[in-house]
Amino acid sequence: MRQEKPQPGYYKPTFAEENRLAAEGYHLIAGVDEAGRGALAGPVVAGAVIMPPDPKGSWTKLVKDSKLLTPEEREFLFPYITEAAVSCGTGIVAHELIDAYDIVIATRIAMRQAIEQLAPQPETLLIDYLLLPEIPLPQKGIVDGDRLCFSIACASIIAKVTRDHIMIELDAVYPGYGLARHKGYCTDEHVLCLYNLGPAYIHRISFHPVRDLLGL
């Protein structure tokens, strides 16, 4: 299937895509998204979620792209999504593979891992932006899909919460970089720590400014 660009300014996730696919005869529809693609440290994490056709509860009105939610809101929604879902999966690709390949390949690997964890397996995929040509399933990549498509938004929350927990754990292993606060992203605090302390093992040496500091 194709990538599709949404109408400008329309950023409330709905079931429109899922309903369209259901009308075509698909019942197991997975939303897929990633977290950590632009970070300087740590893994990229993907989430894959098959949601039921009509999940119940007031929590459904709170679902948004994970980037538009506070950490507290994401943590609140996480158990509701996992309990309501037909199936959830996560994929984690470490910084070593990100550097060995590139971030797009690593993201696709993480997405494939997340999809492979789903039981039952999906019949079709709705993916934030990317397509996964190595997976022989009908699929659609949607620009800003995490803001428009309910299943992708749920997947973004699963991926983000999972990765945040990993980065909090890494903060204890690699203290001084503030990983628990910025989760490895390129904030002013993080860049200053990199200049003061130098890169740690979990930094992505193929990413600027880490690469510049190492003289690569």
Outline the structure in words:
With 216 residues, the chain is α/β, with parallel strands linked by helices. The protein has a single domain, classed as Nucleotidyltransferase, domain 5, CATH 3.30.420. The protein is 41% helix and 15% strand. The protein has nine helices and six strands. The N terminus is likely disordered.
**How much is the average pLDDT?**
94
The CATH topology is what? Answer: Nucleotidyltransferase, domain 5
CATH architecture annotation: 2-Layer Sandwich
Could you name the CATH class? Alpha Beta
Distance between the termini: 39 Å
Instruction: Give me the CATH superfamily.
Output: Ribonuclease H-like superfamily/Ribonuclease H
Q: Give the strand content.
A: 5-15%
Summarize this, please?
41% of the residues lie in helices and 15% in strands. The protein has nine helices and six strands, in the order βαββαβααββααααα.
Secondary-structure map:
Layout: E1 3-4, H1 16-23, E2 29-35, E3 44-50, H2 71-84, E4 87-93, H3 95-100, H4 103-116, E5 124-128, E6 139-142, H5 145-148, H6 150-173, H7 179-182, H8 188-197, H9 210-214
Parallel strand pairs: 1-6, 2-5, 5-6
Antiparallel strand pairs: 2-3, 3-4
Helix pairs in contact: 2-6
How would you describe this structure in keywords?
216 residues, alpha/beta, Nucleotidyltransferase, domain 5, six-stranded mixed sheet, 9 helices, 41% helix, globular
